[in-house]
Write a structure and sequence with these properties.
28% helix, 3 domains, globular, Purple Acid Phosphatase, chain A, domain 2, alpha/beta, 8 helices, 347 residues, six-stranded mixed beta sheet
Length: 347
C-alpha cells in the first residue's frame, strides 16, 4: 500500500500572506493532489506543523487551508493522520490545546494525533508521536520502549540532522531511542536529511531565503516494500539575479513575477543600464526586490559563487558562533531562536 507523507505546511505563514499562499496552491493543484490521484493514494500522514502560528489563525488563512487542502482530502476519500507539531500547539509544555483538534474537528476523515498512539497503517503497526514536551515525554518513552511496531511517524527534534541547509542541529533528543524501529519519519526540520533509518522529510515548498536551491516536495511510502519515492516541487519562491554590465541584456526577467527577488550586483559602471535592469524587474511585479551591492567599483576578483544569501536564523547563528562570550553557545542560539519565533508570532 502506498501512502503520502507531507509535513510542515505552515498554513497562515507570514500572517496569512496571500502571495505565499498562492505559491503554496500551485504545489497542491499541480503536484500534490494530481499525484495522489494518479497513484490512487487513499492515506496521507501529515507529520506536524499544519498551521504556522501557535497563538492563533487568520480567518482567511483558515478558509484557504480548508478549501485548498482539507476539503480536497475529504472529497477524494483520503484518510489523513494529522500529527500535532510545535507550531500547532498553543502551549509549550503540553499539546492539550492545539490547532489540529480545534480547527479540523469537522473532518471525520482526519485522525487528529495530539498524544502518542499506535495505529496500523497500510498493514504496518506504527507509532505516531506529536511534538514531545514536558507533559508527554514520559508517555513517549514508555510507548517507544514497549512498542513492537516497525515504523514511527513523528514531529521530532533530534540531534545530528540538518535543521536547514548547512546547519546541523546539535540539541534535541538522542536518536538512539529509535534504534529498534525499521523506519522513522519526521517533520520539524524543513531540510531533507537521513541516516539510513531516520528520515527528515522536509517541507513541501520554499519559505525562507535559506531554502534557495534546496529540494522541496513530498514523499510516497510503500508499506509493502518499504521503498520511498520523493516527488519534487518544481516551483521556486525565491530568485537571485547576478548583475554585471556586460551580461545585462542576457537576463530573463519573467521568472521573477510574484517572487521574492535579490539582485546581486557584482559590477556596476553603467548606471543607466543598471536602472533599466531594476525597472524591468519591477515591471514583472515581484513580491519583494532586494538589491545587494557586492562592490561599488569594477572588481573582477568577486565571484558570484562567493555571494551568500542568508536568512535571519543563519545570520543570528553566525553572530553567536563568532562572539567571544564565555557561555554555552548552543543554549544562546536556542534562546535567540525562541525569541525570534515569538517575535514573528506577534500580531
Amino acid at each position: 500500500m502506498k501512502i503520502g507523507l507531507i509535513t510542515d505546511t505552515h498554513y497562515n505563514f507570514k500572517k496569512a500572506n496571500q502571495s505565499f499562499h498562492d505559491y503554496f496552491a500551485k504545489f497542491y493543484n499541480d503536484i500534490f493532489f494530481p499525484t495522489l490521484k494518479k497513484e490512487n493514494i487513499k492515506t496521507v500522514v501529515h507529520l506536524g506543523d499544519a498551521f504556522d502560528n501557535r497563538r492563533g489563525v487568520d480567518y482567511w488563512a483558515l478558509k484557504w487551508a480548508k478549501e485548498n487542502v482539507y476539503d480536497k482530502f475529504l472529497n477524494l476519500g483520503i484518510e489523513v493522520y494529522n500529527i500535532v507539531g510545535n507550531h500547532d500547539s498553543y502551549y509549550k509544555n503540553t499539546n492539550d490545546v492545539n490547532a489540529v483538534d480545534i480547527l479540523l474537528r469537522e473532518y471525520e476523515n482526519v485522525i487528529k494525533i495530539s498524544s502518542p498512539k499506535e495505529y496500523t497503517v497500510g498493514g504496518i503497526d506504527s507509532v505516531f508521536l506529536p511534538w514531545i514536551c514536558s507533559d508527554n515525554e514520559k508517555q513517549v518513552v514508555e510507548l517507544l520502549n514497549k512498542s513492537e511496531a516497525k515504523v514511527v511517524y513523528g514531529h521530532l527534534e533530534l540531534s545530528g540532522f540538518l535543521a536547514f541547509p548547512g546547519h546541523v542541529h546539535t540539541d534535541g533528543m538522542n536518536k538512539d531511542i529509535f534504534n529498534k524501529f525499521d523506519r522513522v519519519f519526521s517533520g520539524h526540520y524543513h531540510t531533507r536529511s537521513d541516516d539510513g533509518k531516520i528520515y527528515y522529510l522536509g517541507n513541501p515548498y520554499q519559505m525562507f531565503w535559506s531554502d534557495v536551491d534546496d529540494l522541496r516536495g513530498f514523499h510516497i511510502f510503500d508499506t509493502d516494500t518499504f521503498e520511498m519515492t520523493f516527488i519534487k516541487n518544481p516551483y521556486n519562491m525565491f530568485e537571485r539575479i547576478y548583475y554585471n554590465d556586460e551580461k545585462y541584456k542576457e537576463f530573463s526577467f519573467s521568472p521573477v513575477q510574484n517572487k521574492m527577488v535579490k539582485l546581486i550586483v557584482n559590477k556596476k559602471e553603467d548606471y543607466k543600464n543598471f536602472e533599466k535592469c531594476v525597472d524591468k524587474i519591477l515591471k514583472e511585479n515581484p513580491i519583494e526586490l532586494k538589491i545587494i551591492e557586492t562592490t561599488t567599483l569594477s572588481d573582477d576578483s568577486v565571484e558570484f559563487s562567493d555571494i551568500e544569501c542568508e536568512d535571519t536564523w543563519t545570520i543570528l547563528d553566525k553572530y553567536v558562533e563568532e562572539s567571544e562570550f564565555n557561555l554555552d553557545k548552543s543554549i544562546v542560539k536556542k534562546l535567540i531562536r525562541e525569541v525570534y519565533k515569538e517575535a514573528l508570532e506577534i500580531e
